[in-house]
Amino acid sequence: MESSLSSSLLGSYSYSYSYSLKAKPSFAMAPCRLICYPSRKSRSRSRRRGGFASSLAALDRDRDRDRDGGGRRVGVVYKEAQGQSTRSPFSQPLLVPAAAGAILLFSFLAWKFLANLLVAKPKTPPPVKAASSQPPSWSFSPGSNLSAASPIKFDADSRKKLNDFSQLLRYFQLVDLSGHNFGDDGLFFLAESLGQNQSAEDVNFSANGITANGLRAFEGVLQRNTSLRALNLSGNPIGDEGAKCLSDMLVLNGGIQKLQLNATGIGDEGAKALGEMLKKNATIRVLELNNNNIDYPGFASLAGALLENNKIESIHLNGNYGGPLGAASIGTALELNTSLRELHLHGNGIGNEGIRLIIKGQAVHRGEMTLLDIGNNDIGSEGASHIATFIGNTKHLVWLNLYMNDIGDEGAEKIADALRENRTITSIDLGGNNIHSRGVTALAKVLKDNSVLKSLELSYNPIGADGVKALCEVLKFKGKIETLKLGWCQIGAHGAQYIADCLKYNTTISTLDLRANGLGDEGAICLAQSLKVVNEALTSLDLGFNEIRDKGAFALAQALKANEDIAVASLNLGNNFFTKYGQVALTEARDHVYEMNDREINISF
């Protein structure tokens, strides 16, 4: 059975492997102490005169009296001291002669001397170099450990215990230690265990404050570990130096297939080092470099690697600074590369010219491109023409993202014409493209004959009630859309009527997103009426941010109670305006469905 070590699993071990840097060792051996209780009068004089010496003097006087026939009783009891001593009541004192008192006194002093020899004194922990007077405890709760710039070093005891914990990592296939901020020092302990772990396949060390210096702990480890398939170092400030260090290690690595270096501060120099590594490495299939500082020179270096590397299948460059020139270099590489299947260029500002060059390279690409992410790239209707050409010709593309561009109605019409002939794309994202009812009407007509498209994202487009009407008239009986997202589309209560009517007849839509459309109570009531009708397809409905009040909440609650065969399993009503009465009504409806049908509905407020 495959074993895994995740953050949830580490939580169960947190009490066992939480080490305090201030902890002092305890000792099982405890000394035996002899406690002598003098006579009552002697104790009274001792208290008046004070001190241990006074007690001894009182004992001498009592001994003299004993010689004269005035016997005194001296009580002797042995007690094992372990931790903090407590005074036991003196129950039955023994009468002893004066000579015995001297022997007991000598024995008492001897025992004290012997106890000092037997008890091992605690070792003083080595000084801790910390910025604050309270050094942190080692824990495996996210964010509770060392900061990225912490100069703290572990003492010998903590180092040993942490090293013992790292031994556990040798036996897991999935290791998730993301978000613990253990820094370079923690990586020192954990990396070595990976070198001896021949079963770990997926290791996640993201967001741990690891720097370029810390990556040197992998020296020799990545070269000899052949079982590791995925390494995630995202969110660590390794920068260009870290990318260079890692690249040198991965040149000869024959195991890692997925390398994630998102948000690591890598720039052009680091991208260049990774590009040179890819020319020699034949195992990496997925490289993620999202949200870094890679500009055109870095894009050019990676594109050069694509010309020689025909093993890599997916490259993620979202949120960088490639621009049109970076896109041109990638387009040129596509002409000769035969392995690339996924290209992520979201948010690089490539513009119309950049997308033209990408599509030009893709036109002669001999590989099977299945995913293209070109969202948020300042692409207008002109760029949409090039994309439409690609859509009409592709035989492999499955997923296309054009989110947050500005293709408008004209671009939407071009995309719609291309989809009429396409039989491979199952998911398309056209959200945030300034599409109105005209553009949606063109897309709706395509859905009559397109039986392949399953997911349509149109959020953040001002399509209004008219656009929804055109869409719903088609989807009522035709199309195979399963996921329809219409959030922030200015639909209003009037548009909700068209959607409600569509849901009464549609048998394919399972996920419907209608967030922030100003539906109000009127729109909620319309949708509630449609939910009373048997609909075995719709399982997830999102009505957040719609200004729904108690009246609308009551209507939805009644609909859930009325339809025993309702398939909805998730209903989001967050950020609306109903009070606790509306919440109670929905909660009761949820409980009613569970009691009657033994089905759970997740309702979020």
Strand content: 5-15%
- Net shape: flat
State the end-to-end distance: 40 Å
* Structural class based on helices, strands and sheet pairing: alpha/beta
- Mean of pLDDT: 80
Q: Using only CA atoms, what is the Rg?
A: 38 Å
The percent range for helix content is: 40-55%
For the biggest sheet, the summary is: 17 strands, parallel
Please tally the helical runs, counting DSSP H or I stretches of 4 or more residues: 20
- Low-confidence regions: 1-59, 66-96, 117-154
Total number of beta strands: 19
Pfam family, one: LRR_6
Organism: Rhynchospora pubera
InterPro entries: Leu-rich_rpt (IPR001611), LRR-containing (IPR052394), LRR_dom_sf (IPR032675)
Protein name: RNI-like superfamily protein
Give your account of this protein's structure:
The protein contains 20 helices and 19 strands. With about 600 residues, it is α/β, with parallel strands linked by helices. The strands form two sheets. The chain has a 17-stranded parallel beta sheet. Strands 2-3 form a two-stranded antiparallel sheet. Helix 10 links the parallel strand 8 and strand 9 (about 315). Helix 13 runs parallel beside helix 14. The longest helix has 21 residues, at about 100-120. The radius of gyration is 38 Å and the shape is flat. The two termini are about 40 Å apart.
